[in-house]
Specification:
- By secondary structure, this protein is of the alpha+beta class.
- It has three domains: about 200 residues, Aldehyde Ferredoxin Oxidoreductase,  A, domain 1 (4-Layer Sandwich); about 160 residues, Aldehyde Ferredoxin Oxidoreductase Protein, subunit A, domain 2; about 170 residues, Aldehyde Ferredoxin Oxidoreductase Protein, subunit A, domain 3.
- The protein contains 23 helices and 17 strands.
- The strands form four sheets. The protein has a six-stranded mixed β-sheet with strand order 2-1-6-3-4-5.
- A hairpin with a 2-residue loop joins strand 14 and strand 15.
- The longest helix has 21 residues.
Length: about 600
């Protein structure tokens, strides 16, 4: 990315300037998540309010973006999260990322706050601040269509809906109308800056270091994708919802706010049933041969998704078995710009608060009456919706039952009960951004047998595997590629792609060290914000055995794994990176 620049935007001053992408940062952090983390750590002072003008909002791509590498269409959004208070990155597929790279930028860094609603129009090197008053208050599809009519039909739009405008802490940033940078309230940060959208049109050629070498590596990894049963069969045919029946069979599908791990009508909301009942066509992100995305029809309306996590969050988590309703609710969330994982999990938490007598509201597991209206109220920050829009941790604490919030560091846990997967439990507890399955996807080796099957109940050796997967994930989010490629690619495959596309020469070990550097810098950011080892924990519920199903009688043994995890990380027993580790990683 020797030709790339960082576009530094001040909304307060309505100014923009290009600054060089320093070679040292390039070698240490690659781009994407890594570059965003470095910029945020250096520029955002401790204890600032995430919704203040002083917070940065960073859109970043990586050295593989918009090249011939499969799945190289993603972009990262990096900021300090208003939901968690942690350093945060959320990444998104679709077609926005390649336009950013083709405009000649590796990142757009946005600071300050506009005095009135604006959108940013980037047409290669021409930068304009335009009024967003005509689309302020509009939903995502109408906003996208209006801005493309006003700019260029070939451009790409990343925008917020009403949830982001109202600074709801579950707000996402949407692109391609239904692709979401969805977690941590990144949309709220955008709304707090009075920024409705970033519209980009890029026409420049993306160059690579060794085109012939890259072609050879790309040809090899494409064969690997075709050879792997997950990336060539399961995901293309059924999408991510292929996981519903499998995870339920293992007793890991959280039901009724994680009170159980088995949903009695999992088949009714499965990927197989989606294909049979509401499927319209597949959706491919830029450069992706897998095509896991779904376009579906519910109640006569087409929309993108729902993905596995959304089916769970709006389905089993809330006791709902109506697949068409789940798809319609997902479409509503996309239009309003809401993170479906945190939203569904928080509604499930509210349902249990009602069940336990802590909250007086018309909410009960399995009942969808009034839920679409509640989703709208969350986005508009009205009534009970305003309380749910703060997230499950704040909600449950407010009603004197903090243990009913299924979250880590304030971020709601996704669709895997950790009691039946010890490595996944450790990865969730130690995630720098909070409750997340994508910081180190241990479901791969523990359930799917990718790259190899390991005993999901075994404790020994899990700390080392989690360490490895977390470092690789950080590097991948900086290249930046889709997580599904890990089912087919080795660490060396990723290193070969980076070497061919850039002027860097890295092997697998060196690539993992880049990921480790990013992980440690994120840890330092969180420690600076007041987080500590006590936050590397899971809700107390997971110390109670699951009552039935494929993970019956299992609990999490976090206390047995954390000491080894800290030791392998080169951290103290209190979770602080040692001076030796920071020196080894060349972190100042």
């Amino acid at each position: 990315m020797k030709d790339a620049q960082i576009l530094w935007v001040s909304l307060s001053k309505q100014s923009a300037k290009e600054v060089p992408f320093l070679a040292d940062n390039y070698a240490k952090f690659l781009g994407g998540r890594g570059l965003g983390v470095k910029l945020l750590y250096d520029r955002v002072n401790p204890e600032i309010d995430p919704l203040s003008p002083d917070n940065l909002l960073i859109f970043a791509v990586g050295p593989l973006t918009a090249t011939s590498v499969p799945t190289a269409g993603r972009f990262a959004v990096v900021t300090k999260s208003p939901l968690t208070g942690t350093i945060f990155d959320s990444n998104c597929g679709g077609y926005f990322g390649p336009q950013l790279r083709r405009a000649g930028f590796t990142a757009v860094v946005i600071e300050g706050r506009a005095t009135s609603p604006v959108y940013l129009w980037i047409n290669d090197n021409e930068i304009e601040f335009r009024s967003a008053e005509p689309v302020w208050g509009k939903e995502v599809s109408n906003t996208t269509d209006h801005l493309l009519d006003e700019t260029d039909s070939k451009a790409q739009v990343a925008c917020i809906g009403p949830a982001g405008e109202n600074q709801v802490k579950l707000a996402s940033i949407m692109s391609d109308k239904h692709r979401a940078a969805g977690r941590g309230g990144v949309g709220a940060v955008m709304g707090a800056k009075n920024l409705k959208a970033v519209v980009i049109q890029g026409t420049k050629k993306v160059t690579v270091s060794d085109e012939k070498q890259l072609d050879q590596v790309v040809s090899r990894v494409r064969r690997l994708l075709k050879k792997d049963s997950i990336t060539n069969k399961s995901l293309p045919v059924y999408g991510t919802a292929v996981l519903v029946n499998l995870i339920n069979e293992y007793g890991l599908l959280p039901t009724h706010n994680f009170q159980e791990g088995t949903f009695n009508d999992a088949e009714g909301v499965s990927g197989e049933k989606l294909l049979e009942r509401i499927f319209v066509k597949k959706y491919h992100c830029f450069g992706c041969p897998i095509g896991c995305g779904r376009i579906t029809r519910a109640y006569g309306e087409e929309g993108g998704g729902p993905e596995y996590e959304t089916i769970w969050a709006l389905g089993p988590q809330c006791g709902v078995n109506d697949l068409e309703w789940i798809a319609a609710a997902n479409n509503r969330c996309n239009e309003l710009g809401l993170d479906t994982i945190s939203l569904g999990s928080t509604i499930g938490c509210a349902m249990e608060l009602v069940q336990k007598g802590n909250l007086d509201a018309q909410l009960s597991f399995g009942d969808t009456e009034g839920l679409i209206k509640l989703i709208d109220e969350i986005a508009l920050a009205k009534g009970l919706g305003a309380e749910l829009g703060e997230g499950s941790k704040t909600l449950a604490t407010q009603y004197n039952a903090p243990e009913l919030a299924m979250q880590v560091k304030g971020l709601e846990l996704p669709a895997y009960d950790p009691r039946g997967v010890q490595g996944h439990a450790l990865a969730s507890a130690t995630s720098n951004r909070g409750g997340c399955h994508l910081r180190g996807y241990m479901i791969g080796p523990e359930i799917l047998g990718s790259p190899v099957l390991v005993d999901r109940d075994r404790i020994e050796g899990k700390a080392g595997l989690v360490n490895l997967f977390q470092n690789l994930s950080a590097a991948m989010d900086s290249m930046i590629l889709c997580r599904f490629t890990t089912f087919a690619f080795s660490v060396q495959d990723y290193a070969d792609l980076v070497t061919a596309a850039t002027n860097l020469s890295v092997n697998g070990k060196e690539l993992l060290q880049i990921g480790e550097r990013i992980w440690n810098l994120e840890r330092l950011f969180n420690l600076r914000e007041g987080f500590s080892a006590k936050d590397d924990c899971l809700p107390p519920r997971f110390s109670t055995p699951l009552p039935e199903g494929g993970s019956r009688n299992r609990i999490v043994h976090l206390e047995k794994m954390l000491p080894e995890y800290y030791r392998l990380r080169g951290w103290s027993s209190k979770g602080y990176p040692s001076e030796a580790k920071l020196k080894q990683l060349n972190i100042q």
